[in-house]
Specification:
With about 675 residues, the protein is α/β, with parallel strands linked by helices. Helices cover about 50% and strands about 5% of the residues. It has helices at about 10-20, 40-55, 75-95, 105-110, 120-140, 145-150, 210-225, 245-255, 285-295, 310-315, 330-335, 340-350, 375-385, 405-430, 430-435, 440-450, 455-475, 485-505, 510-525, 530-540, 555-565, 575-600, 610-625, 625-635, 640-660; strands at about 30-35, 60-70, 170-175, 195-200, 230-235, 240, 260-265, 305-310, 390, 400. It binds uridine-5'-diphosphate-glucose and manganese (II) ion (MN).
């Protein structure tokens, strides 16, 4: 997508400003968040960290910060290991100009030596990497870290017996101090600053999930590097392109328009999407067309990862026409303060549970609290303060991460997002309750549409049940094709779907992939959006509190195998599956019943107007094929649990019982 057609600065003008800045290039702080060593394994986290440390950007201007909400000694240990490995990895990457710079991704992409590396060196680095991951994994397996390793860093002392992820003091450890003359790689080049943070957690204090972690990082980094640009990624989103920092700065440094730009957002790309996108997690048209198109109306929303912000705008600054940037942050502070311990102590005091009490943090300053999509609502607030944003979608993806790889994880993630979007919608009308009254209607329009997911989920339920029932019972509860208003409806339905199909195919999706996305939309509407809606109402009534279920980035061997083969994963019983199975069975039973009636000749399908029912029901049955397989044909562990099939068969009988008692006329 050519951004310039939407009014964004073109790369040409920006390359010029880049050349002009030279040594005066701004410092950049990189934030990485992790929350749970089980769903986000430490070796995954450090691969991301290493890819970020190896950016093609002056190392003395780069600082990488990890926030660990899991407060895990294993994550800290992995970070300590990564510090030593970085001394070999970074010069290796730079010497041979390799991509991607996440060691996990690099070695899994190329199990064999790649040109132009020196074979000996390549094997040496690979061996070193394998040994490191083995040490980390075996420490995790055994549940403890060898004493001789612990003796190497004072940081390990922070973890005593009483510590757990929900109850611990602030832990701040500077692993590589960029100001230290001795912090160099094995070729004597400066290393980027590297820091580990686990903010204080106490059971009686709410910690505001990722938003709280990001805000703690903003404060901590302000006393360490205080760079004017902040980039953030989720712990699975490794850098896949060594030039991303330079590319992004081009937008901020643009002489004509740069001063208006608050943040530069990259798409969320995944490296684990199957050929036909079985869970519909990657929608190319959304990434290529819709997000890009938003550049013409002030820019895309902030989507939580793969984003560069000005520090000032994250701290609440309002845009003014004569806004002037000070690009000097970062370097100056590095020279001023030099005693690591002092800085660590100061940083700790900024990450206590009580620090934010009675302050504007989480509202006017920093990432906003109280919304499960803290990213989107924060981005909207930034737009409301007058800033624009830019979407950049280079051909070589800037970041690659992990999409949910089971059905339940996908539905859980969608539920969180639907709750979040619904909360944004409500925040307009209940500002007191959510404290985000400043969102303007214009910025909100899109979210009104999201909010309609609740009625939408009900409408979907209607369209997946009533046509079938009508077909079976022969009573027109579902409008017939002959009624005057249904014709335009059918026309609109067909045209939008055909256009949608065309767009998907032209953006690189497969036909099968498009079909899978349709199935997932249906499933998400009758489960995630429905439950998301109910949960948001619960919260509104004060009956429950906000949660943030971290999506798992690992699955066991058999589960991943099925994922690669594009076999849907069920396995355990959940209410969502009962809904899915009930609807699927209902469609099947009704289609069979309807067809039997036709065979018996009791009504002429094409003359008395039941053909739309037949078509819709038939399509739904085809859409539901993987669910029938999961219920009746599959033998593997990921099949639909028998209890779910039984429960849905029970629910299926209900409408027929109702009919016996109150006959449908
Ligand atoms: O208490 C928490 C919970 C989560 N996280 C981190 O937040 C990130 C996103 O969590 P994940 O489970 O991967 O959620 P996704 O649905 O994949 O995340 C998308 O949606 C979120 C909002 O719902 C955004 O915050 C993310 O940036 C965006 O990638 C991960 O790095 C987590 O480690 C924390 O740091 N603390
Ligand atoms: Mn994620």
């Amino acid at each position: 997508m050519d951004l310039s057609s939407f009014g964004a600065p073109s790369i040409n003008t920006v390359t010029i400003s880049f050349a002009r800045h030279g040594e005066r290039l701004p410092c950049v702080d990189i934030f990485v968040c992790t929350a749970d060593p089980q769903s986000e394994p430490p070796s995954l986290v450090i691969s991301t960290i290493l890819s970020l440390m190896a950016y093609d950007y002056p190392a003395k201007k780069l600082s990488v910060y990890l926030s660990d909400d899991g407060g895990s000694v294993f994550t800290f240990y992995a970070m300590w290991e990564a510090t030593s490995f970085a001394k070999y990895w970074i010069p290796f990457c730079k010497r041979y100009n390799i991509e991607p710079r996440s060691p996990a991704a690099y070695f899994s992409e190329s199990d064999e030596l790649q040109e132009p590396c020196n074979p000996k060196e390549w094997s040496f680095i690979k061996h070193m990497y394998d040994e490191m991951t083995e040490r980390i994994d075996s420490a995790i397996m055994s549940g403890k870290i060898p004493e001789q390793i612990k003796a190497n860093h004072k940081g390990f002392c922070e973890w005593n017996l009483e510590i757990n992820s929900k109850d611990h003091q602030s832990i701040i450890e500077i692993l590589v101090d960029g100001k230290d003359q001795n912090a160099v790689d094995n070729e004597g080049n400066v290393l980027p600053t590297l820091m580990y943070m686990a903010r204080e957690k106490r059971p009686q204090h709410h910690h505001n999930f990722k938003a709280g972690a990001m805000n703690a990082l903003i404060r901590v980094s302000s006393v360490i590097s205080n760079s004017p640009i902040i980039m953030n990624v989720d712990c699975d989103m490794y850098s896949n392109n060594k030039d991303t920092i330079r590319d992004s700065l081009c937008f901020f440094l643009d002489e004509e328009m740069g001063h208006k730009i608050g943040f530069v957002q990259y798409p969320q790309n995944y490296n684990n999407i199957t050929k036909n996108n079985i869970y519909g997690n990657s929608i190319q048209a959304f990434k290529k067309v819709e997000m890009g198109g938003l550049d013409s109306v002030g820019g895309p929303p902030y989507i939580g990862t793969g984003c560069f912000h000005r520090r000032e705008i994250l701290c609440g600054m309002i845009f003014t026409k004569d806004y002037k940037v000070n690009w000097n942050g970062g370097v100056k502070d590095k020279i001023q303060e030099n005693i690591v311990c002092n800085i660590e102590e100061k940083a700790k005091s900024l990450t206590t549970c009580a620090y934010e009490h009675d302050t504007p943090w989480g509202n006017e300053i920093g990432i906003k609290y109280g919304c499960p999509v803290e990213d989107v609502i924060t981005g909207l607030a930034i737009h409301c303060r007058g800033w624009e944003s830019v979407y950049n979608n280079p051909i070589r993806p800037a970041f690659l991460g992990l999409a949910p790889s089971t059905l339940s994880q996908t539905l859980l993630q969608t539920k969180r997002w639907s709750e979040g979007n619904f909360t944004i919608f409500l925040s307009k009308y209940c500002p007191l309750m959510f404290g985000h009254g400043k969102i303007k209607l214009r910025h909100q329009m899109g979210y009104c549409i999201y909010a309609l997911w609740a009625p939408n989920s009900l409408a979907t339920l209607y369209y997946v049940t009533i046509p079938s029932l009508t077909l079976l019972k022969g009573s027109p509860l579902f409008p017939e094709i002959t009624s005057p208003w249904i014709t335009p409806f059918v026309f609109v339905f067909c045209v939008t779907n055909l256009y949608n199909l065309y767009e998907a195919l032209s953006c690189g999706d497969t036909l099968n992939g498009w079909w899978n996305v349709q199935r997932m939309w249906m499933v998400k509407r009758i489960t995630s959006y429905l439950f998301g809606f109910i949960d948001t109402l619960w919260k509104l009534l004060g009956l429950s509190h906000m949660t943030f279920a971290v999506s798992s980035k690992v699955s066991d061997e058999h589960v991943s195998k099925r994922y690669e083969q594009e076999i849907m994963e069920f396995g355990s019983s959940t209410p969502e599956y009962v809904i899915i199975a009930t609807i699927a069975l209902l469609n099947l039973v009704c289609l069979v019943g309807g067809l039997c009636q036709i065979m018996k000749g009791s009504w002429n399908v094409f003359l008395n107007g039941f053909s739309p029912q037949l078509i819709i029901c038939g399509m739904l049955v085809i859409l539901n094929i993987p669910f029938y397989e999961a219920m009746f044909l599959r033998k593997d562990k990921g099949r639909m649990p028998f209890s779910v099939t039984l429960a849905s068969a029970g629910f299926l009988v209900l409408p027929f019982l109702v009919e016996i008692m109150i006959p449908i006329v």
